[in-house]
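Complex 876.
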Amino acid sequence: MTPPAPEPLAADAPWIVMKFGGTSVATLPRWQNIRELVAGRRTEGARVLVVVSALTGITDALKQLCAEVDAGKRSEATRTIAQRHYELLEHMQLALPDTLGTRLHDLAQLAADGPAATGELAWQAQVQAHGELMSSALGAAFLSHSGLATEWLDARDCLTAVALPNQNERTRLLSSMVDSRHDPRLAARLAGLGEVFITQGFIAREGASEKGAGRTVLLGRGGSDTSASYFGALLKAQRVEIWTDVAGMFTANPRQVPGARLLQKLDYEEAQEIASTGAKVLHPRCLSPLREPRVPLLIKDTNRPELDGTVIGPEVREHAPSVKAISARKNITLVSMESVGMWQQVGFLADVFAQFKQHGLSVDLIGSAETNVTVSLDPTENLLDSDAIAALATDLAKVCRVKVIAPCAAITLVGRGMRSLLHTLSGVLAEFGQLRVHLISQSSNNLNLTFVVDEEVVDTLLPHLHELLIAAGALRTDDSALFGPSWQALYGSGELPAPAAAWWHAGQRPRLLQLAAEATPRYVYHLPTVRQQARELKSLAAVDRLHYAVKANTHPAILRALAQEGFGFECVSPGELKAVLATVPDTAPLLFTPNFAPRDDYAWALTTRASVSLDALYPLEHWGELFRGREIVLRVDLGRGLGHHEKVRTGGAGSKFGLPVEQLDAFLRLADVHGVSVRGLHAHLGSGILDDAHWGEVYAQLASLAERIGSVAFIDIGGGLGVPSHPGEARLDIAALDRVLREVKAAYPHYQLWMEPGRYLVADAGVLLTRVTQQKGKSALRYLGVDTGMNSLIRPALYDAWHEIVNLTRLDEPATALYQVVGPICESGDVLGTDRRLPEAQEGDVMLIAQAGAYGKVMSSPYNLRDEAEEVVLDD
Ligand code: ADP
Ligand code: ASP
Ligand code: MG
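Predicted structure with magnesium ion bound:
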């Protein structure tokens, strides 16, 4: 039964502009969706203007037709194009409407005539305009036939192109701009004609006062979005909706980065920056018409209208500062201009830029040095062709030495306040360190940071950089008010990647609340999680011996659990060694690996069963007698460090650990003098490493050193196995690590392979429970106080470490507040988490700080003489 027709609309009913892209108008099911969506908006009481693109692929086909010199081939092309439309009509069970018939006829005529009469560019514009003219005619017929009375509108009668200074003919005709100041007369005129309209994207007409007035012009490839915005601004619409084949703007092109996250809310400036730096989902010019009238823009998926989409509107400052997206533009041309002593030459820059103006080319990025200026030309703005660039280069050569570098790609990080995020980007910057970077530019609006690199590296680099941004906490995917699900989660095969960590505490809430009711602050450790991690590492077939690096957590229950799992223990002080000796069976292997320890520490350790490790010449130079006849382990520095923070990197000249490889011969001579035998070689580059290849490289390097030494029986490749902490961050791939280790082991099978993980075994197993004490507002910031801070957990203050924070009392309430979670210690650095999206909290709420099992309690201090957190162990 057809629903009753809605009440007629008042003359001043609000407007909604709905733009449907090429894939959204190419099939019958999509048109059925369009019908439902449009009818829905009408029923809500809005007048609807539908803007359509050409059917997907048709603009490309028309462009190809234009490039064809042979009239016969052009006519053939029009027949293929017509066929696409006939097929869709057939699916719609519609006869050819006259409106479409006329268009097809006109197109055939244009193709037959060729450009002679109108001029090449004007003819191209007319031909390409037919894509949208045809799709809109077809759409009008379908919608009206399906019971939704729809008026067909010629967009050229509403959108008038403006002539801009320095615009060349090509840009004027093929990439034009439109005057879109609010025009109440247009709204009034249309309101007199009907309630639902359909019109074309991509096309407009030259204004009456211009030379060649009345010619059809185009708005640039992808410009239908911009048509919708022009209409939105002219009509001062309630909103503009862009319906496409993805649910919105993502943090990266989702076809390239499946882990890209949906951006739920953006302000005009950020969205503009993402669009103009490569995100094809919005035409770069489509936001500026909406800014002044403050018309919001919504991006939605035509095929999945139930998904939330992206809302773009005036600025809202309620989010954590974050990189919002990483985008890439290919096909960038760089022009490098060299002139000796140019800064002394008054007017040099004016001269070179005059040439760009002359050739109608707009400059995008600029980098300068004493004798060189390098600029980039963006193809979307410039409609580049090789002739234009060659002509420019010829003219520039008169004033400087010119080099054209292409094809390049520009990779851009976008986010408001980019400069305040720089400290989080060291890992990302390090990636660029390995590439040829032609230009780096930071936009003066502080919204973007761009790197121009060779084009071929982009496809593999982008997913990697996206991951690094999440891992570094630069892309704050934890802020659920801003970052929606990943593309993979929304559209993937249904198999979601494993969550960052299977949090044991999710299932233990009542118990944890009870423990917190007894006392806070409290550390709670979950032994089954320790065992599970231990067993995972025991599956590494190539590893002969695993030692737990006890500095991560020395709780006796954890030591016992790991001894039961067959682990040895790595200790860095007599205190640790004593704790282990007092707790674990005397069959457990022990390592003593101190750094800058006093003589007495070694003297005592040598009385135990621990293997003692040295990492400097000094002990043998000065206390050689102590080690006479002993077997020792030598820790070397492989010259580089790795890890999640500068302070946890333990290799390279900047770190105090390890014997530099160039001192190896001197060490071996000393060992010889004292009858010391080097039985083991050890290296540890840092902590929080998630790259499985790393340990293979370490083994191979140590093994090749071991070949030189002769007496080595085992190689200890250290620990540092990372545990991801940010939502969406990938876990270390243990199966891949297994493959890597098996491979290197096969190359050097005569050494035993040892490892010494710490954090990996215990981080996820521990949480810190604390209670809300007070709250405070300070300008835009909200502070949430809890009853312990850096005295119990110093990692956030020391390493900027990220720990997930959960309000255990209000687990089911919506996370609407943005808090700075702070402790009671008299230090500004006493912050446990910045910009955390959490439910509105109240005094006494129990907060859980996750991943606190490693380097939590062991690094706590009596600072401010606050009570230390107690420790509780759960065995099930
Ligand atoms: P339409 O034909 O509907 O105008 P487009 O192909 O122009 O659609 O734009 C949608 C496409 O934009 C998506 O399918 C996706 O491949 C691409 N895209 C590039 N970057 C992004 C991004 N950051 N977010 C969403 N989509 C993006
Ligand atoms: N049909 C035009 C193009 O393919 C405009 C658009 O779809 O936005 O570029
Ligand atoms: Mg598009």
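Residues 21-22, 53-54, 59, 131, 201-202, 221-224 surround aspartic acid (ligand 2) (CB under 6 Å).
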